[in-house]
């Protein structure tokens, strides 16, 4: 196939074999967020470029080199959203959702776009589920966000595979003092820094802490520590969060080098990481951004949230064999009919069953075929039962119910009793 007719590198089709797992994951998260009283918001995928520059920060990797930015027909500079927080804050401001100190607990789901180098777990179009909470300044809500993700790992069977890393970045004033101390320390060792870190030293020195280069990491061992510069308010907030996590029995490690790649954070930052996915091990990440709403033109409004990468969590479920077996089953029941008259009867019988058996997933054979070929298709569909309707059954107004997965005998059941019979069978599966 010519290259221009293929999907863009780093942008993936999610094929029918994969969608059941995606839908299971999405439904699990949506159900969980419903149960905590969070409400969904849906924002556009494209925004003015300025929005991301102002919120994520001009000298971040995302804004400097990863955005899909283009001019539209009006000459406006637009960008495919690289993340959801900026758009969510914009929407909240634009619709006055946080006015008068109103609390908002919101979530969103959808594709995000970053021009990164694609590899396992890192794509150019990827999907996030994100949560943002406005006007709750205390550590109790930071703790709730972590508690609810912990519950999610429990529901998905992932608790043993993830670790919570936690840090506090302090207030912006405290961070500025720390930044100066760090720059002084690193400037004196400039020659030993890797090239990327030297560049960051000028533009965004805290990101040097993030460096993966061993020599730079070695240099950082004796560097000034952010925690020694924390303001009292941030210190108290962080202690409050830790006390709540301890009370809830949620394990965590403090990672003083966790600074995150987006500029809007202050106080709490956290990441859930796994060592099961290779280099792209962060499955969920977030933190507090109390200054962002004001920075974008709103009244002072606190914010805190996180986003998880769906591709990475789906990969993790697959890697750890945590995919529920029933997802392989497309349908519960496959109705096979032989002969024109039986086919006609099958059509109405199927509709009756769909009316009367709650949640039934029923496929009706299409394209006729011999007994053998129809049963082969029934088996391939993953159905637990095949319903057999031939001329003889038609005359007697019955069907043969043939178990496909267990040893049981084929039963003959009248059309009238069939809905109740199937409902009973499905309950056992
Ligand atoms: P982020 O750390 O840039 O934060 O992304 C959050 C998560 O999205 C990552 O931990 C990862 O699981 C997933 N992710 C990011 N980039 C990629 C990629 N190229 N391919 C696959 N997955 C990826 C944010 O986006 C913040 N808006 C989170 C937040 C919300 N903070 C406060 N509220």
From TrEMBL:
EC number: 6.1.1.21
Residue ranges of domain Aminoacyl-transfer RNA synthetases class-II family profile in the record: 1-317
EC top class named in words: ligase
Family assignment from sequence similarity: Belongs to the class-II aminoacyl-tRNA synthetase family.
InterPro entries tied to this protein: aa-tRNA-synth_II, aa-tRNA-synth_II/BPL/LPL, Anticodon-bd, Anticodon-bd_dom_sf, His-tRNA-ligase, HisRS-like_core, HisRS/HisZ
Gene from which the chain derives: hisS
Protein's UniProt keywords contain Chloroplast: no
GO CC term (a single one): cytoplasm
Subunit relationships: Homodimer.
Name of the protein this chain belongs to: Histidine--tRNA ligase
Catalysed transformations (reactions): tRNA(His) + L-histidine + ATP = L-histidyl-tRNA(His) + AMP + diphosphate + H(+)
Annotated keywords: Aminoacyl-tRNA synthetase, ATP-binding, Cytoplasm, Ligase, Nucleotide-binding, Protein biosynthesis
Any one of the GO BP annotations: histidyl-tRNA aminoacylation
HAMAP family cross-referenced by the UniProt entry: His_tRNA_synth
Top-rank lineage group of the source organism: Bacteria
Keyword check for Ligase: yes
């Amino acid at each position: 196939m010519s290259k221009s007719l293929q999907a863009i590198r780093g942008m993936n089709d999610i094929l029918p074999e994969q969608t059941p797992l995606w839908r299971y994951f999405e439904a699990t998260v949506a159900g969980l967020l419903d149960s905590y009283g969070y409400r969904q918001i849906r924002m556009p995928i494209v925004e003015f470029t300025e929005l991301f520059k102002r919120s994520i920060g001009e000298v971040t990797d995302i804004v400097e080199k990863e955005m899909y930015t283009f001019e539209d027909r009006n000459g406006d500079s637009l960008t495919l959203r690289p993340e959801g927080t900026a758009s969510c804050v914009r929407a909240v401001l634009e619709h006055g959702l946080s006015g008068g100190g109103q609390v908002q607990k919101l979530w969103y789901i959808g594709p995000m776009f970053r021009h990164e180098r694609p590899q396992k777990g890192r794509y150019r179009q990827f999907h996030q589920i994100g949560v943002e909470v406005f006007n709750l300044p205390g550590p109790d809500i930071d703790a709730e966000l972590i508690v609810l993700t912990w519950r999610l790992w429990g529901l998905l069977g992932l608790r043993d595979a993830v670790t919570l890393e936690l840090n506090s970045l302090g207030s912006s004033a405290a961070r500025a003092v720390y930044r100066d101390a760090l720059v002084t320390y690193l400037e004196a060792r400039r020659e030993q820094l890797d090239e990327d870190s030297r560049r960051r030293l000028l533009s965004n020195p805290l990101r040097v802490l993030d460096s993966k280069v061993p020599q730079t990491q070695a240099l950082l061992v004796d560097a000034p520590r952010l925690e020694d510069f924390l303001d009292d308010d941030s210190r108290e907030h962080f202690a409050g969060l830790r006390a709540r996590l301890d009370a809830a029995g949620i394990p965590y490690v403090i990672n003083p080098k966790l600074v995150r790649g987006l500029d809007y954070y202050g106080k709490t930052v956290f990441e859930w990481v796994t060592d099961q996915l290779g280099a792209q091990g962060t499955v969920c990440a977030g933190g507090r951004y109390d200054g962002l709403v004001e920075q974008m033109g709103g009244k002072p409004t606190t914010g805190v949230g996180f986003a998880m990468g769906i591709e990475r969590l789906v990969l993790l479920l697959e890697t750890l064999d945590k995919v529920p077996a029933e997802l392989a089953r497309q349908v519960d029941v496959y109705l096979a009919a032989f002969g024109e008259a039986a086919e006609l009867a099958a059509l109405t019988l199927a509709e009756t069953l769909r009316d009367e058996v709650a949640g039934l997933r029923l496929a009706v054979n299409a394209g006729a075929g011999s007994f053998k070929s129809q049963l082969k298709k029934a088996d391939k569909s993953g159905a637990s039962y095949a319903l057999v309707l031939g001329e003889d059954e038609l005359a007697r107004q019955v069907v043969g119910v043939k178990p496909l997965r267990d040893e049981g005998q084929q039963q003959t059941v009248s059309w009238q009793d069939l809905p109740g019979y199937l409902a009973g069978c499905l309950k056992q599966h």
